[in-house]
Amino acid sequence: MLKLFSISFILCLVATSSFAYLGPGVGGGVIAATIGIIVAIFAALFGLIWFPIKRLIKKRKEKKEKEQKQEQDKFD
After folding, report:
1. How far apart are CA 75 and CA 53, in angstroms?
2. Dihedrals phi, psi of 17, to nearest 5 degrees
3. CB atoms < 10 A from the CB of 37, how many?
4. What is the pLDDT of residues 26-71, one digit of tens each?
5. How much is the pLDDT for 76?
6. In angstroms, rounded to a whole number, what is the distance separating the alpha carbons of residues 19 and 17?
7. Cα 49 versus chain centre, distance
8. What does the DSSP assignment read for 14-51?
9. What is the rounded distance in angstroms from the CA atom of residue 29 to the CA atom of residue 40?
10. DSSP string, 42-75
């Protein structure tokens, strides 16, 4: 078993040349996938940061409006 594992490991380390054609579509696909991953990361960060801040601002604004309304009711 150890012999099989060591032979497999050595064969994985040996570099062989491949004679394959990679056309321009592969490059475009790699660029599109990379851009997609970057956009997904920024969208996740935006969602994790912006929406809680937006909710906090909304709560603060509602609290301020409620306090102003209570002050107006005192004077009326």
Report:
1. 33
2. -85, 145
3. 10
4. 888 999 999 999 999 999 999 899 888 999 999 999 998 888 888 7
5. 60
6. 7
7. 12
8. S---------HHHHHHHHHHHHHHHHHHHHHHHHHHHH
9. 16
10. HHHHHHHHHHHHHHHHHHHHHHHHHHHHHHHHHH
